[in-house]
């Protein structure tokens, strides 16, 4: 099956305690697509300027990603983001955001995108996310991400609430959901978001993994235990790409399917953060994903107290 994504396609300038890099291929849409493309077909919607190097488009195409929904504005400048991480790499500090060509982008989905069932509204202006969802005829499962940049502005926050009401899954990190709901307790905050309509809230907690809250229960997915983390940029988008990619691959959006998909999300995000930019995602293979999936399973499995003692020893 196929997953459609709208989100930023960016030139990122990044600084972490382990180094600095300028004008790398980035953006929520790019990380998501590279992550999901190892599991399923991806259709991308977005906009780029004249200055996005052709090699970045080649990188995306080399993973089979369909760029039919990506418009190039001949005289425009590509979206740019500059961010920094201190020693606590769970928190990104935005140094600069330049919307550039995203400022007056009007998405117009190619006809063959409009019947796609799995849709991901990656981080971008909530108004654009709404415009995309309105063009998809019969979505089966829609995921949504956002960030403080949009939650902090009353106008874009109002639009974001309209988007939340139309999706199945909301992905937010702990700080974002606290900011959006004004609630400190994450479970209370998740209930507030669920009351707007989605079936599941997926709270990302950086190196501590992710927690899903739905009407069916709570599930905690650990992060993959990595010894090398160089650049957390795109971790959230890669988590979402792994998760949505698995849902689209299996067609199973049940609670059990979602829990398994979260483990794919954790595993795929681990490849993204090991190196700068998108390199880790480009090096990842299905075999390496399967091996990490099994390691994570072994690391987080424990027995029920109701099992007889002999069976436990
Ligand atoms: P993540 O680390 O998963 O939250 O995503 C990081 C990516 O989000 C970077 O590659 C940025 O280019 C992109 N990004 C940062 N700020 C914004 C924004 N306001 N809107 C859309 N994308 C953004």
Number of helices: 12
Order of helices and strands: EEEHEHEEEEHEHHEHHEEEHHHHH
Q: How many angstroms does the end-to-end distance come to?
A: 43 Å
For the largest beta-sheet, the strand count, sense and barrel status come to: 9 strands, mixed
The helicity comes to 25-40%
The CATH architecture comes to: 3-Layer(aba) Sandwich
Bound molecules: adenosine monophosphate
Task: Describe what this molecule looks like in 3D.
The structure is a single chain. This protein is an alpha/beta fold. The protein has one domain (2-312): UDP-N-acetylmuramoyl-L-alanine:D-glutamate ligase (3-Layer(aba) Sandwich), CATH 3.40.1190. It is 38% helix and 26% strand. It contains 12 helices and 13 strands. Helix 1 (28-36) crosses helix 8. Adenosine monophosphate binds at residues 8, 10, 12, 26-28, 81, 92, 97, 123-124, 147, 149, 233-237.
Brief overview:
This protein has helices at residues 28-36, 54-62, 126-135, 148-151, 154-164, 174-181, 186-194, 235-250, 255-273, 279-283, 286-300, 309-312, and strands spanning 2-6, 10-16, 19-26, 41-49, 66-73, 79-85, 92-98, 118-121, 141-145, 169-173, 200-204, 210-214, 217-221. It is α/β, with parallel strands linked by helices and 313 residues long. The chain is globular and about 70 Å long.
Topology of helices and strands:
Elements: E1 2-6, E2 10-16, E3 19-26, H1 28-36, E4 41-49, H2 54-62, E5 66-73, E6 79-85, E7 92-98, E8 118-121, H3 126-135, E9 141-145, H4 148-151, H5 154-164, E10 169-173, H6 174-181, H7 186-194, E11 200-204, E12 210-214, E13 217-221, H8 235-250, H9 255-273, H10 279-283, H11 286-300, H12 309-312
Parallel strand pairs: 1-4, 1-8, 2-6, 4-5, 8-9, 9-10, 10-11
Antiparallel strand pairs: 2-3, 6-7, 11-12, 12-13
Helix pairs in contact: 1-8, 3-5, 6-7, 8-9, 9-11
The protein binds adenosine monophosphate.
């Amino acid at each position: 099956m196929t997953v459609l994504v709208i989100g930023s396609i960016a030139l990122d300038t990044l600084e972490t305690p382990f180094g600095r890099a300028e004008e790398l291929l980035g953006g929520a849409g790019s990380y998501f697509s590279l992550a999901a493309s190892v599991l399923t077909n991806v259709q991308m919607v977005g906009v780029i300027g004249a200055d996005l190097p052709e090699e970045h488009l080649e990188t995306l195409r080399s993973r089979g990603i369909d760029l039919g929904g990506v418009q190039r504005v001949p005289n425009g400048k590509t979206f740019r983001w500059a961010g920094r991480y201190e020693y606590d790499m769970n928190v990104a500090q935005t140094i600069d955001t330049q919307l550039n060509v995203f400022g007056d982008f009007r998405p117009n989905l190619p006809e063959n995108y409009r019947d796609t069932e799995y849709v991901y509204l990656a981080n971008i202006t909530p108004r654009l996310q709404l415009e995309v969802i309105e063009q998809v005829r019969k979505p089966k499962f829609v995921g949504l991400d956002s960030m403080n940049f949009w939650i902090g502005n009353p106008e874009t926050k109002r639009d974001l609430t309209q988007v939340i009401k139309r999706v199945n899954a909301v992905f937010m990190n702990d700080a974002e959901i606290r900011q959006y709901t004004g609630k400190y307790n994450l479970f209370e905050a998740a209930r507030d978001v669920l009351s707007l309509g989605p079936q599941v809230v997926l709270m990302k907690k950086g190196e501590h993994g992710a927690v899903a809250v739905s009407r069916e229960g709570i599930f905690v997915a650990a992060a993959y235990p990595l010894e090398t983390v160089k650049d957390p940029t795109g971790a959230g988008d890669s988590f979402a790409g792994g998760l949505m990619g698995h849902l689209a691959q299996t067609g199973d959006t049940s609670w059990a399917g979602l829990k398994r998909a979260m483990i794919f999300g954790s595993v795929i995000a681990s490849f993204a953060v090991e190196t700068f930019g998108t390199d880790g995602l480009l090096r990842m293979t299905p075999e390496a994903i399967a091996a990490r999936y099994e390691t994570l399973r072994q690391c987080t499995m424990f027995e029920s107290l109701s099992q007889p003692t002999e069976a436990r020893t």
